[in-house]
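quick one: adenosine-5'-triphosphate bound model?
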Amino acid sequence: PAHERPDVVRIRGLTRSFGGPNILDGLDLDIADGAFVALLGRSGSGKSTLLRTLAGLDPAPAGTVTVPSERTVVFQEPRLLPWKSVWRNVALGLGGKDAHGRAVAALQEVGLSHRIDAWPLTLSGGEAQRTALARALVREPRLLLLDEPFASLDALTRLKMQGLVGSLWQAHRPAVLLVTHDVDEALLLADRVLVLADGRIATDIPITLD
Ligand code: ATP
Ligand code: MG
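yep, here:
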């Protein structure tokens, strides 16, 4: 059970504002190692702000956020370098010897073996999403941050991608924080569902499947 695993994320009293009212307002959150957490909440409630902070893109006040350095983030709009091939985008910044082999293996996992030498501009939206996912997964993160990664996909591609993320979670067991507006998706994939409201985690529900 989750409460027996060490926490991979620890947030205490995180407050953020952009000059107006607090978007995050004394937010507390722990995420256990290997947990799959879905984060719901109204548009503008601060979900992406929280993810950016966890990704290290928005520095947080000292002492409020503890998060592992082995983390990767997939944004709703995949960010690929247009002048690098698909496999080079996946291999970008990879340490170690066999960056090409590892990138190709990750692309195979997301079903893109046939697109490894393609240019990003020739990819469909779903292919670009899967490339971004492969780039995140090849790093074997302890924490995987996913910000509405399936939001713009058609139903069939979305179903495939959800299945992919679910099985990759089963296989590699990173902690996952998935932002979504889709309650069905949250219940399908996650073992814990959160709702962000008024700058805090207003609802925190464990999901058990028997
Ligand atoms: P959505 O579901 O629409 O993606 P969200 O929950 O991800 O919404 P955020 O993107 O975190 O919401 O934004 C929360 C609030 O903070 C919004 O009112 C937004 O306009 C504001 N905000 C976010 N980033 C900035 C910024 N860099 N400058 C000013 N305001 C910002
Ligand atoms: Mg958002």
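Residues 82-138 form one domain.
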